Amino acid sequence: MKTSVLEISNATVPGRIAGVSLALAPGVMAGLVGPNGSGKSTLLHVAAGLLPPEPGGGVQWNGVPLARIPILERGRRATWVPQEAHFEFGFTVRSVVAQGRYAHDDDGKHVDETLARFDLTALAHRPVNRLSGGERQRVLLARAHATAAPLQLWDEPLAALDPRHALKILLLGNKHTRAGGTLLFSLHDLRMAYILDMVVVMHEGRLRAAGKPADVLTPELLLDVFGVRAEITSSLSFALP
Ligand SMILES: Nc1ncnc2c1ncn2[C@@H]1O[C@H](COP(=O)(O)OP(=O)(O)OP(=O)(O)O)[C@@H](O)[C@H]1O
């Protein structure tokens, strides 16, 4: 059996999440869903090593406890994208994306290619605090992409994006995981969650279910967790031209 890229065991952060255990294998694109306040952001913080769980719980990356992984090595293995793309300072778009290479001796690799991939080349010299919300979100995702870290943890990456950019980000996530990387990202669009390899459902700070979307997102669970009645209908679908 393959070692989990990410293994969270019995993680508790008082008042936020309780006794959460989760394992993600290499090559998996997983969606983290749950109502507002159910603990998705908290779980992503814990997974990224930004918030320690209470004693008795732990996080491992590739079978190694986080406490034993030096900080720069952490930066090479995993990256986290915050929910809110807010910048205090007016660094240029290019310099923020280049920060993604910090744990690689600031080697500048992938930066121009990443700017192009995220449609940011024309904005490369613009201060990040003078961008639209969706543009700022793309800058943070581009910085995460530039790290080339195998474990990508994104908090609501699609929330501010237009349909074309949202689709591009999903396709990049798919490419990353097909190449053996792992992606865990939170989202509110349950229809989108159906196309992923795995879905993880949080409810009131606890992990309610994890597995294949069709097995997990049953009408009973959707009613119980989200308070919505689900119905399968035909709907609009998009593809890049
Ligand atoms: N910094 C904090 N300090 C204390 N409690 C917090 C903090 N941030 C969030 N919480 C609480 O922890 C719980 C989980 O919040 P979290 O942000 O993880 O939820 P979420 O599922 O990401 O929500 P949303 O969908 O609204 O982004 C909520 O009850 C929230 O009020």
Automatic annotation (TrEMBL):
Record protein name field: ABC transporter
SMART domains xrefs: AAA (SM00382)
Positions of the ABC transporter domain: 1-229
A GO molecular function held by the record: ATP hydrolysis activity
Origin: domain of life: Bacteria
Keyword Transmembrane (UniProt): no
Gene3D superfamilies xrefs: P-loop containing nucleotide triphosphate hydrolases
Organism: Ereboglobus luteus
Keywords tagged on the record: ATP-binding, Nucleotide-binding
UniProt keyword annotation of Cell cycle present: no
